[in-house]
UniProtKB/TrEMBL annotation:
The record marks 168, 224 as: Positions MEP for the nucleophilic attack. Belongs to the IspD/TarI cytidylyltransferase family. IspD subfamily. Coiled coil: none annotated. It comes from Colwellia ponticola. Its EC number is 2.7.7.60. This is 2-C-methyl-D-erythritol 4-phosphate cytidylyltransferase. GO terms for biological process: isopentenyl diphosphate biosynthetic process, methylerythritol 4-phosphate pathway. Pathway: Isoprenoid biosynthesis; isopentenyl diphosphate biosynthesis via DXP pathway; isopentenyl diphosphate from 1-deoxy-D-xylulose 5-phosphate: step 2/6. The record marks 19, 26 as: Transition state stabilizer. The keyword Nucleotidyltransferase applies.
Amino acid sequence: MASISKFIAIIPAAGVGKRMQANCPKQYLCINNQTILTHTVTKLLTHPLISQVVIVLGANDEYFAQSPLAHHPDIIRVTGGTERVNSVLNGLKAVNAEQYPWVLVHDAARPCVSHQDIDNLIAQCLANNHGGILATPVRDTMKRGVFVKDAKSNVSKSINLIDNTVEREQLWHALTPQLYKTNELRFAIEQALANGVAITDEASAIEQANLPSLLVSASSENIKITHPNDLALAEFYLAKQAEQLNKSTAPK
């Protein structure tokens, strides 16, 4: 995979995950007695090319100190910002770009990413000498909705109706990790923030800077845990991946 032998990953983990309806931030919910964050960090640090992880935490995070990750020698802790993009920028400021010219950014709530997909992302980005993201093509029919007043209701409310069907060809679900040159990503984010541009992920900052970005097809198992039902699905995928790993490493 070219001449670069080590990478660093940033995990923005300063959010609270309100949609999980839990009594703690979702990254601290447990699957098989380990937090989601621990599963995610372990998946990254066990990859042979990832040597360090920067975890960006909320200023008032009271859970990380109790985690086994707190004293890990390959983990750097950074305080997050008001939005995800600010947290990623704070993480980038903690990265030595000479030591790590490329940086991965990965969601804390994506513990099911595979090493194979990370391998593919790194290989394709290095081969093309520019960054990219893991993604999955849209398979379902896509509809654009529109809110309208419900004339039949006695209570003033709006309902969501179909406005039109969106052509799904060349539509992709953006996943993480997203891999970019460290200095380019930092410049793109700083430029976007200075211009008041809304940034939803690293790729959107790169787009605003008019830099190229690859779409690298990945497994649909790389889900983001957002709703309570996602926990069971993530547990299933993690168990499946562990079984596959055990089979591949078992003596023959």
